[in-house]
Every structure is written in C-alpha cells, then in structure tokens.
Amino acid sequence: ANKSKEHNIFIKAHPSEPMYKCDITVKSTINEINQKYDANFIYLDKKVHNIVTFDMADSIITSNGTVAIEAVCYGIPVLVAASTLYENAKTVIQSKNIVEYRKYLENIENIKKPTIVMIDRAKFCFMFYSKYIYVGASYLRNGAVFGNANRFDEYSKFNKVYKTKKELIDEPLYNRFCAMIEQNDNDIINIYDKDA
C-alpha cells in the first residue's frame, strides 16, 4: 500500500474476468484494498485499450498473460508471477521464488528496459501466439468446448490478413504447437539464444 503512494499503480482485469461469474471482481478487490489500507490503486476499465496502458506504464506486472508479450513489444519491462508459455524466449523477468519476486516488486522502479533483441523475440512470440492459438485442442470457453471447427474458421480470418491460402493443418509451426499441447510442454516456442 505504501508503494501505491509513491507510484501510480494501475490495475486492469483480465478480459476473461466476466466468464467466471463471481461476486468478487478485480474492481471490488481494489476498492476494498484502497479503503482498508489507505492505498491508491487505480482501476482501469476494460474499455481502456492496452496501448493507452503502455503509454502510461513504466513496467507491467502480470501473472502470465499475453499482455506480457505485448508490453515487451512496446519496450515495457514485464515482471511475471508464474511459469509462462513463452518463458524460453527470455523476454520477461521471471522470479525463481517468492523472495526474489518480492524483491522485484519492492524495487520495481529499477527494472531494466528490454533490449532490442528481447523486443524482437517478444514480437515473434506475440505473432506466433496470435496466429497459432487456434491449435486443435479442447479448451473451455464460457463453459463450452471451443472445438477444432471454430479454430479453423478463425484461422481463415488470419489467412485473409496475412494474404495466404495455406491451410492451418499444413503449417509446420501449427504442427509443432499441437505436439507441444499433446506433450503438455510449457513453452510455446524456444527461441532463446544463449549468446544474446
């Protein structure tokens, strides 16, 4: 709470928050913390686009969402609280334990900006994730299975944007992504160059 007086701390709920139909929301939690601890956390409505957030942010803290990849694309340093699908790209700050995580939080103003190489890796990961998230796996969305047919339909929209006619099933990276899901691997892509 003390840091909330030293820094402007904006908090934005994950876009899927309404899916969970819970009485406790990010907004209600922030209001409660602000009242109970005399903090000054600022809630950002879902209408506030991430680009606006990136214009204001000196750093981003997230559990492991795609906002972490997106923010690094804009040169914003990101601290994640968990294992991520993009951790081998080495684009975010990932603590080894709770003590290290707390140290980062206490010194958030000292987190270094991402390098050009990290920004390039983040852009690649973001493009990869945006395009290949339509893997043929059964994830739950709003309580219903988000089936393969929907993914292939959605992928056709990307084909229009990328001006390609290649089918999703024929994409080598798609097949690698499917293998990753089947093997329960935790990294979307391993593009880490140990020399960089």
Name the shape in a single word.
Answer: globular
Helix and strand sequence: HEHEHEHEEHHEEHH
| Average pLDDT, all residues | 76
Helix content: 40-55%
- Give the low-confidence spans: 135-149, 191-196
Alpha carbon gap, first and last residue: 37 Å
Helix count, DSSP H or I runs of 4 or more residues: 8
**If you compute it from the alpha carbons, what radius of gyration comes out, rounded to the nearest whole angstrom?**
19 Å
Instruction: Let me know the number of strands.
Output: 7
| Biggest beta sheet summary | 3 strands, parallel
Strand content: 5-15%
Q: Tell me the structural class.
A: mainly alpha
Query: Major sheet: order of its strands?
Result: 3-4-5
Provide keyphrases for this structure:
196 residues, mainly alpha, globular, disordered C terminus
Model description:
With 196 residues, the protein is mostly helical. 42% of the residues lie in helices and 10% in strands. It has eight helices and seven strands, in the order H-E-H-E-H-E-H-E-E-H-H-E-E-H-H. Strands 3-4-5 form a three-stranded parallel β-sheet, with helices on both faces. Helix 2 links the parallel strand 1 and strand 2. Helix 4 crosses helix 6 (116-132). The longest helix is centred in the middle third of the chain and has 17 residues, at 116-132.
